[in-house]
Each structure stands twice: as C-alpha cells, then as structure tokens.
Amino acid sequence: MISKEETIKKASELLDVSECSIAELPEENINAMISAFENVDVNSDDDKKILYEAIDAEWQKGSVLIILKELADNTGIAYSSLCCLDFETQKAVTFEYLADSTNMEHIYTITSRALAIIELEYISKLTGISFDELKALDDRKKEQICGHYSMNYTAGGSNTELAAEIKEMIKS
Q1: Is 45 exposed, middle or buried (0-12, 13-18, 19+ CB in 10 A)?
Q2: Can you give the pTM of this predicted structure?
Q3: Distance spanning both ends of the chain, measured CA to CA
Q4: Please, what sign has the CA dihedral across residues 167, 170, 171, 172?
C-alpha cells in the first residue's frame, strides 16, 4: 500500500504542483489518489494518461472543495449546500469568488439557481423525460417545475399525478 506521504510526493511531481497544494486536499481526495496509484499499472502512454487524468481530477475536486469551504465561512452559505451542487457549478462559484469575493450577490444568484433546479435528475426519472431535455429548458421553467416537484413529491407514493402535472407544465 502506498503511503499518504508518498502519494503527495508522486502526485505533486506528476501534476507539477507543490506538495503543499496536494497535502491540503481533503482526505477523500488524497485517498482517491492513493487508490489511483495502486490500481493503475503504468505500462504505456495511455496508462500514463489515465493515471494523470485520475490524479488531476481529484486535485481539481479537492482544490474546489477547499475554496468552497472558505466561501461558506465568508458568506454564510452552508458548506453542505455548496457540496450538493454539480461540479461545474461548484467550479463556477469558486471562480466567481476568487475573481471578486465582494460580489456576493452574483455568487448567491448562481448558488440559488443551481439549488433551485437540483431536482432535475429526479424529475427526469419520474417523468421519463431525458435529463438533457429538462436541462435545455429556460431557467424560469426549470425553477417552476423543480419547485412544483419539491412541494408535491410524496416519498413512497406513486406520484403519477405529479408526473402528469410536470409534463403539462413543460408543454405550456
């Protein structure tokens, strides 16, 4: 088994970043890096690329989580809410925060919009409408159907009527 220290050293060399930037990552990301180093046999250039992409993805995710924690501490937005966002939205919020940490209104807007439509995946399963099709709807429509879903979904129920209502909302 590869040690945490060895992982930090190897990851920093592979990504050409400081060991500190790897060491500061959350444990879950370092553990994923350990797993990648242990499970990817590097026998070819393709293997090297696979390993690099796995390590880089964890470095990016961990770096974003570090900044999201700082953002949560400085804005009052719950860290758990920020962690619920999809990775692309997390990156967008992170970049906005790093670019201008005084523009809280814009950061709140991005976060609120993303949280308002977080149920799209569940709505897709309920209605049989593809996630991509739902995602392509205009923002207002997405917020309306997600709000309707949130207020009317019954856990353990059939929700057939809810599915029909949402389909009708999409058509109108």
Answers
A1: exposed
A2: 0.76
A3: 58
A4: positive
Structure letter (DSSP) for residue 77: -
- Contact, 82 vs 90, CB < 8 A? yes
Can you tell me the distance from the alpha carbon of 85 to that of 14, in angstroms, rounded to the nearest whole number? 29
Question: Which residue is listed with tokens 């390590």?
Answer: 55
Is the Cβ–Cβ distance between 59 and 44 less than 8 Å?
A: no
For 59-118, write each residue's pLDDT tens digit: 999 999 999 999 999 888 889 989 989 899 999 999 999 998 888 888 988 888 888 788
Contact by Cβ (8 Å): 91, 62: no
CB-CB contact of 1 with 38 (8 Å): yes
